[in-house]
Amino acid sequence: MPLSLYDAIIPGNIQIIGSVSALVDKAEAFCQETGTSEEEIVQARLIEDMLPFAYQVKSVGEHSIGAIEGVRAGLYSPSLAAPPESFDALRDVLNSAREAIEAIDQSEVEGFIGQDMEFSFGDMKIPFTAENFLLSFAQPNFYFHATTAYDILRAAGLAIGKGDFLGRLRMKTGG
């Protein structure tokens, strides 16, 4: 059986949203254990010209359910809203994204194939088919921001590893 567009996008989104949510929990525990302020971690960056942890987490939601909503509308334009400023608000973003992604019907995603859509940001307009947008733009951005969120926490001193990034694997069941 060939791999479907749904299978290429949705299960991975659910898996990594779960792992990023667990990273937020670990960041909060780290703050409590070390006396580090929540703001210090929420605003932490790898380097001055990169966006902070909160933005990276917000972008995980943007490039998962936000991308699906963009395909539904035929237009994706990134949100310029400020990222959340607390662990609870970051968890809310991730929980909302996970719930919305889990509610998507596979046939809807398969129906996206061949549909025209556009990425728009300021004067930049990029035409895509839905599947090319999801696979060549949204999905790489989704993983980039999830990885960057992980990297920021690791650089901040959290004792996390690759398993924390991978989250709950989808292993073979049965015999």
Molecular structure report:
- The protein is mainly alpha-helical and 175 residues long.
- The chain has one domain: Four Helix Bundle (Hemerythrin (Met), subunit A).
- It has helices at 5-34, 38-42, 53-62, 65-73, 87-102, 106-111, 130-155, 162-166; strands at 75-76, 116-121, 124-129.
- A hairpin with a 2-residue loop joins strand 2 and strand 3 (124-129).
- The longest helix has 30 residues, at 5-34.
- The radius of gyration is 17 Å and the shape is globular.
- The two termini are 20 Å apart.
Overall geometry = globular
- Strands of the widest sheet, in order across it, are 1-2-3
Which residues form runs of ≥5 with pLDDT under 50? none
Looking at this structure, what is the CATH superfamily?
dinb family like domain
Task: List descriptors.
globular; 8% strand; three-stranded mixed sheet; 3 strands; 8 helices; 175 residues; mainly alpha; Four Helix Bundle (Hemerythrin (Met), subunit A)
Question: What's the structural blueprint in terms of helices and strands?
Answer:
Blueprint: H1 5-34, H2 38-42, H3 53-62, H4 65-73, E1 75-76, H5 87-102, H6 106-111, E2 116-121, E3 124-129, H7 130-155, H8 162-166
Parallel strand pairs: 1-2
Antiparallel strand pairs: 2-3
Helix pairs in contact: 1-5, 1-7, 3-5, 3-7
Question: In summary, what is this structure?
Answer:
The chain is mainly alpha-helical.
